[in-house]
Design brief:
alpha/beta, 6-stranded mixed beta sheet, binds glucose-6-phosphate, 22 helices, 5-stranded parallel beta sheet, 47% helix, single chain, globular
């Protein structure tokens, strides 16, 4: 580590220049900025792959961008990016490489970890997944009693659930509609019950996805799945036809009773939340087929290449990350809303929530020192236009600053009446209204009674990014996910945090296990928790047993 690295980013001249610049910008309005520069809406745009970002409706100028770019250079974002692509162990707390980009490297490309080219291993697993998916989809792979597999249930949680779940919904129109795909994650037994209650075990395949194969929720659901399946199929040998595993832990998979021949591996250099383009996406590959899955990987790769090679000035993920830094660290915004104008992307904000908040929700830097500025934002959202009839009110007229990413698609999957134009009219109108508002004079000029004018006035000046994509497909979904992966990377690099560990999750995995025996024990247990936990625990035991 050079001495340079040890300087907190907030002490650098680049950061201080931005703090000073913020004082100049904080009261400038988007109305002023657009009035001063008629080309703003054309100039403040950037393209990467099929993604077009218009960032003109942000409270910034060309000077702001120059200063943010200088900050990125000072923080060594490009160097860290290059280290990631070179397979260096940039996940310092777990001493691991971070190579989700290798999962979508084309055959023949070379990426080394500890001197071993990992690309052939990646493609070997993809080939096995392709073969398996084709057999299930074609009906060649049958269940224990010879019936065709009609239902696939993915059992996993967190990184082993959110990606395939989101993508299955996003690409529903590309899935084999003769099959049913479901996702069970919660240890709440109702999740498993609802997913299986109308299905026939003879036609149901479970894909148990767990990097560690020790996660409480997944192991509990997998056990229940085994019992549910065997209750009908009887014979233990049926497990081979109805259960496959995706994991890095072959011993635990074998102990569960799944033949390692039916296991698809991945590697410790793939973080859970960066994994759905690995074997973790097996259920998705069964749903959309190997060719569409390849197209998804090509989309990821297109943005990887853009991120790897474009200068910061035209690097879409880096610019999106820097704009986020501007609001997070200088305007003091706590949150970011991601608003996809596509119903297929209903789960996209939830997916991003994990990607961003688990990656950059940290308060010490890579050297373990407390960070003296704000780090990862609170990410949330829902598809437009639904949100417009609910929480957008607060974004328009509330007191909080909520920068938003609006994601729109120029072509709809299905032509239904005039819906697409109405959808996109809303996508466009909302960013316009947020940016420019409606002044008291404009409201009054419409003949609104004076006492109502303040209520109907919109201050505007609410910042938005508009991301416009030709259409939603496996290829563009891969691009969108890679965009946000690298955005999160950029921000983590600027804050000098390790975006690739998740000790908060690890803690949760341990804590509940200490309480389980106290809930299971027949006799009233001796409790040594705090008084709140002790009282709640006793009340729970009483209520549970009282029916
Ligand atoms: C993701 C996290 C976490 C993880 C789950 C499931 O980056 O590490 O969400 O994916 O806890 O872990 P397993 O795959 O090991 O069951």
């Amino acid at each position: 580590m050079s001495k340079e690295d040890l300087v907190p980013i907030t002490s650098t001249p680049e950061w201080k220049a931005l703090s000073k610049h913020y004082k100049k910008i904080q009261d400038v309005t988007l109305r002023d900025l657009f009035a001063a520069d008629p080309n703003r809406g054309e100039d403040l745009t950037v393209e990467g792959g099929d993604l077009y970002l218009d960032y003109s409706k942000n409270r910034l100028t060309a000077e702001t961008m120059t200063k943010l770019i200088a900050l990125a250079r000072r923080a060594g974002v490009e160097e860290l990016r290059d280290s990631m692509f070179a397979g260096e162990k940039i996940n310092v707390t777990e001493n691991r490489a971070v190579l989700h980009v290798a999962l979508r490297a084309p055959r023949g490309e070379k990426i080394f970890v500890d001197g071993v080219d990992v690309v052939p291993e990646v493609h070997a697993v993809l080939d096995r997944m392709g073969d398996f998916s084709n057999r299930v989809r074609s009906g060649e792979w049958v269940g224990h009693t010879g019936k065709r597999i009609r239902n696939v249930i993915n059992i996993g949680i967190g990184g082993s659930d959110l990606g395939p779940r989101m993508a299955n919904e996003a690409l529903r129109d590309f899935t084999d509609r003769s099959m049913t795909f479901r996702f069970v994650s919660n240890v709440d037994g109702n999740d498993f019950w609802e997913a299986t209650q109308d299905l026939d075990p003879e036609e149901t395949l479970f894909i148990i996805v767990s990097k560690t194969f020790t996660t409480l929720e997944t192991m509990t659901n997998a056990q229940s799945a085994r019992e549910w399946s065997l209750a009908k199929l009887g014979d233990k040998s049926s497990v081979a036809k109805h259960f496959v595993a995706v994991s890095t832990n072959e011993a635990a998979v074998a102990e569960f009773g799944i033949n390692p021949d039916n296991m698809f591996g991945f590697w410790d250099w793939v973080g859970g939340r960066y994994s759905f383009d690995s074997a973790v996406g097996l259920s998705l590959m069964v749903a959309i087929g190997p060719a569409a899955f390849s197209s998804l990987l090509e989309g990821f790769h297109a943005i990887d290449e853009h991120f790897r090679t474009a200068p910061i000035e035209s690097n879409l993920p880096m610019l999106l990350g820097l704009i986020g830094i501007w609001y997070n660290n200088f305007f003091g915004a706590q949150t970011v809303a991601v608003l996809p104008y596509s119903d297929y992307l209903a789960d996209f904000p939830t997916y991003l929530q994990q990607l961003d908040m688990e990656s950059d929700g940290k308060s010490v830097d890579r050297q373990g020192r407390p960070i003296d500025c704000q780090t990862g934002p609170i990410v949330w959202g829902q598809p437009g236009t639904n949100g417009q009839h609910a929480y957008y009110q607060l974004i328009h007229q509330g007191t909080k600053l909520i920068p938003c990413d609006f994601i729109g698609f120029s072509r709809s999957r299905h032509k239904v009446g005039d819906h697409q134009n109405l959808l996109l009219a809303n996508y466009l109108a909302q960013t316009q209204a947020l940016a420019f508002g409606r002044s008291a004079e404009e409201v009054a000029a419409e003949g609104v009674p004076p006492e109502q004018v303040p209520h109907r006035t919109f201050a505007g000046n609410h910042p938005t990014n508009s991301i416009l994509v030709p259409e939603l497909s496996p290829y563009t979904l891969g691009q969108l996910v890679a965009l946000y992966e690298h955005k999160v990377f950029t921000q983590g690099a600027i804050w000098n945090i390790n975006s690739f560990d998740q000790w908060g999750v690890e803690l949760g995995k341990k804590l509940a296990m200490e309480i389980v025996p106290e809930l299971d024990s027949a006799a009233e247990p001796e409790l040594a928790h705090d008084s709140s936990t002790n009282t709640l625990l006793r009340r729970y035991r009483r209520q549970r047993d009282n029916n």
